[in-house]
Design goal:
- The chain is of the alpha+beta class.
- It has 14 helices and 17 strands.
- 41% of the residues are buried.
- The chain has a 15-stranded mixed beta sheet that branches. A two-stranded antiparallel sheet has the order 12-13.
Length: 424
Amino acid sequence: MTLDPVHFDGIARLARRIRQDVDTSDHRDLAETVWRDWLDPLREGGDVIVEPIGERRRRMVDVTEVALQDDPFPTQHGLDSGTINPTTFKNGLVLDVAHAAMSAVPSDLDLHRGRTVVMTVHSNDATTSLTDDWEVDDGGYVRQRVLHAPRVSRYEAAVVHELALYLAESEHACTNADVVDDLLLMDGPIYPKGLLNWTNRQPELADLLAEDERPRDVVENYLRLVERFVARDVPLAGFVKTPVSRSITRTVRRGAGNAPWVNDAAFFSQVLERREEVDGEWERRTDALTFTNWFVSRGGADRALSTLGDAFGLERELDPADYEVTFCVVYDPRTDVVYRVEAPAAFTRDEDRRERLLLQVLKGVAVERGPPKAVAKADSLARIGRTETTAIQEALERAFETERDTDYDAERWGVNAFGYGGAD
């Protein structure tokens, strides 16, 4: 025990010294104002970056009733990619290994066995030679390759991580697209937002995304994926478990001078939470899931593939508006968690289809008290745990005849030199 009661008391006194001019009720009132006055549509400069599809409204559905609904889509497939997180070695290599899998509900064991593995390697040694052709293993169930990452002076961890993660995910999706008959639910956004955010980070990463074919090839995979699903008239959507978008809060803060929420998810939680007064205290009502209408999003990472962006000059076979990100927000009061559901605009223009997509997600959340089953199964298949991560890193040490470049934090906390924890 390193903290005595006196230390806890001191921390509490420090907290009481933090002055807040606006209390929680004022935050809720401000959220109501933003919901009512700012989102129909939300503008940034002269551009519309968030606008409702149809009527802007909040809705609710009884948890038990929606859990008992029939599935709008008879079969559902999930997709996810997991990594060991960036690892640096004493020989100068920085790499990450990503592993993508697709799930099926009802189960399909052959499909579950199939995997796509990508190892992305960064080296400052110009003499390093890599063979990066696709190879097949496990009797044809596994496709794998090494990708030589673009050379950068900084941000090696971000480059190897995001290229490995999104190349594995997009390749596995494209390879297995024809297996999906009714609905594909991706675990996370429908586009590689970590990679797309390079445009909003440092100039070196923005230039890399604009000029290097390797990250552009990954983005192109997602465009081709949307086109294949549109051609087959089979919807795809993304279930974002931890939304981090700040497009709304950032724009409101610039326009109004105050937006106290950490991100858009925190804003929507105040918009969607239902409370009632019990014995003089306000308590959260947990009998119903609440959710918004669908919106079109063109801000932040969503801008590049919207009608406001040029998709980095990549060819788009469909109308650019078909690729735009549309989203709705679902709030589960039982766990006080906000989820963001995404889909390309091509699949949400039709009211009946977007209602069916939403109902499928609502049923899944109600039953699972978390991500829908297809998403949870894909996450389970693709996840690389701490024990497996350590074993892979040790195998790489033997293969490279070197050691990981560790520091004190890595020894004590189990994180590498870049601050990434082990994958869960």
